[in-house]
Amino acid sequence: MIETLVTLYPVETTPHTASVLGVSEKTVKNKAKELGIEKYAKSEWLERADYIRNHFDTKSFSELGKDLGISKNTVSRIAGQIGLRRTEKEICNVKSRVRTELVKREKRRMIFGLDPISKIKVVTNRPRIKLRAWLKAKGYVVGEKKNVMYYPADIIRCHNQESRGSELGLRFLPLPIEDELLLTTAI
User: Fold this and answer.
1) What is the DSSP letter of 147?
2) Which residues contact 104 (CB under 8 A, 6 or more apart)?
3) What span, in angstroms and rounded, lies between the C-alpha atoms of 167 and 135?
4) How many C-beta atoms surround the C-beta of residue 74 within 10 A?
5) Angle, helix 43-55 to helix 61-68, in steps of 10 degrees
6) Residues 6 or more apart in contact with residue 27 via CB below 8 angstroms
7) CB under 8 Å to 1, separation ≥6 — which residues?
8) How far are the Cα atoms of 17, 28, 41, 160 from residue 21, in angstroms, in the given order?
């Protein structure tokens, strides 16, 4: 049994060694400790550690985990075991890069009319959205299609802002009478 323990314990898992010997895992661990037998680092662990070391400065723990097929907590644990630590500046750089890539991906999804993956709100045309919000505060009504704005008959129109809005892709139409009736009854 000791000969089998010496052969298996360094390279196999403790549960496997215990099942082959027909004893408990605790017994296997205690006897291995008593004999001074230690486990070898597995080649898969060494490959993962090497990959993490090579990409630690440029990738987040989640990205490393996805590349290796392991959790980000496992990546963190392996990085700690091999002595890798990030400074605050490195953490900020990685977070900034990841967020920038996420925003770019969400913008592409919005442009192609796909549903967002994350809860990050992205803006594709900031000047148009700011102008639309300003005009809405002045009394204009945003239509079902976000690029159509209606002006009620009783407001003072902002012709300069409307021309700027037209350049940005907004269309301005008089508020239909039936919608105007609905607005007054809702108030």
Assistant:
1) T
2) none
3) 15
4) 16
5) 140
6) 18
7) 21
8) 6, 9, 22, 87
pLDDT of the residue at 185: 46
Q: What is the DSSP letter of 156?
A: P
* Span 106-119, pLDDT tens digits: 888 877 777 888 88
Helices (H), the chain: 2-8, 14-21, 25-35, 43-55, 61-68, 72-81, 88-111, 126-137, 159-167, 177-186
Q: List the one residue out of 126, 169, 124, 121 whose CA is nearest residue 149.
A: 169
Parallel, antiparallel or unpaired: strands 141-142 and 148-151 = antiparallel
pLDDT of residue 178: 56
* pLDDT of 184 above 50: no
Q: 3-state class of 123 per DSSP?
A: coil
Tell me the angle at which helices 72-81 and 61-68 cross, rounded to the nearest 10 degrees: 100
Instruction: Work out the burial of residue 38: count CB atoms within 10 Å of its CB; fewer than 13 is exposed, 13-18 middle, 19 or more buried.
Output: exposed
Q: What is the C-alpha separation between 94 and 105, in angstroms, rounded?
A: 17
Cα 13 from Cα 128, distance rounded (Å): 61
Q: Is 37 exposed, middle or buried (0-12, 13-18, 19+ CB in 10 A)?
A: middle
Structure tokens at 9: 């314990």
